[in-house]
Design a protein that fits this description.
Chains A, B: It is found in: Cytoplasm. Chains A, B: This is Xanthine phosphoribosyltransferase. Chains A, B: Its main location: cytoplasm. Two copies of one chain form a homodimer. Chain A is α/β, with parallel strands linked by helices and 192 residues long. Chain A has a single domain, classed as 3-Layer(aba) Sandwich (Rossmann fold), CATH 3.40.50. Helix content of chain A is 28%, strand content 37%. Chain A contains five helices and eleven strands. In chain A, the strands form two sheets. An eight-stranded mixed β-sheet of chain A has the order 6-7-5-4-8-9-10-11, sandwiched between helices. Chain A is globular and about 50 Å long. The termini of chain A are close together. At the A-B interface, strand 3, helix 2, helix 3 and strand 5 of A face strand 3, helix 2, helix 3 and strand 5 of B.
Chain lengths: 192, 192
């Protein structure tokens, strides 16, 4: 998506070998007009799927997920992160390992908000190693809901997340795909 | 706001003497169409203020703040919560006490995203004892930015937050004002 690639080129900050900081429009300061455009683009790309619910993880997934929810006119549910859970009654939970922080978090959603009748679109800000998306897919499985697809704002094609999802034949749409960082610049991969 | 009061009557769950659970449309599952309507209502109520930025706290403030940002077409910044911070360089921070959880959290925002040129509208999901809003006001003070007003989705008039803001002559707009819970039912206060 050219609008997003342009914005990443203009405002993204490449840190080291594999980190892209986009905290000025996506995950700390948020550009609402850009979010609206991303939401409409997700809607266009998953127009044929009978989506009943959008699922994401707090906090930085909430903005793109809400924008998508506005385009689809379906509820958005965000999984909560916890260090560890003692009360698991009425919750679906999964463990998510963060390669960046080298810690595990449990994510959970209330059983009230996901059922076997749901067709779920997962939305997240980044796809790198795919751990957060895998956790959400596990929760969808627990609820016996149907996974209709995964919509990602920024994918890093050089990390293993996309491959894991492709192997399971999941419909993935990433609005920007980063192939590499070269000399502090972002090199985009073709859309796929 | 009648649309919101109706929704609280229909879907809100009164727990004990002073807790209203609205996790099926506001802070766990989110109704995007309702958020859009709330955002437009905030815009209408603060139409005369020269807002340049919307400020909230993760996670449950993000959805109404983003919806307001879409109506104002200005950036939204959400403060992050931390147990305690070691690295405070380039951050504005404030300590927020939670009466519900009986713990203190630090909230922070990057100095990049708030400056003396900003006219800030604070948006949050609940106003009860006002601790989160006070923390955000402290951060706005550190940045020497101007506070233009505070927009709240649900205010509990019987807790002290509103009074604290009124005493400081801050322009507060709450879209639903709860005066009491009686026999498990919500009693609304007139708008003010």
């Amino acid at each position: 998506m050219k609008l997003l690639e342009d914005r990443i080129r203009e405002d993204g900050q490449v840190l080291g070998a594999d980190v892209l900081k986009v905290d000025n429009f996506l995950n700390h300061q948020i550009d609402p007009d850009l979010m609206m455009a991303l939401g409409e683009e997700f809607h266009r790309r998953f127009a044929d799927a009978p989506i009943t619910k959008i699922l994401t993880v707090e906090s930085s997934g909430i903005a793109p997920a809400l924008a998508a929810g506005m385009a689809f006119h379906v509820p958005v549910v965000f999984a909560r992160k916890h260090k560890s859970l003692t009360l698991k009654d009425n919750l679906y939970t999964a463990t998510v390992y963060s390669f960046t922080k080298k810690t595990s978090n449990e994510i959970s959603i209330s059983k009230k908000f996901l059922s076997a009748d749901d067709n779920v679109l997962i939305i997240d800000d980044f796809l790198a190693n795919g751990q957060a998306v895998e956790g959400l897919i596990e929760i969808i499985g627990q609820a016996q809901a149907t996974l209709s697809g995964v919509g990602i704002v920024i994918e890093k094609t050089f990390q293993k997340g996309r491959q894991l999802l492709d192997e399971r034949q999941i419909h993935v749409e990433s609005l920007a795909r980063i192939a590499a960082f070269e000399n502090g610049q972002v090199v985009f991969a073709p859309e796929a």
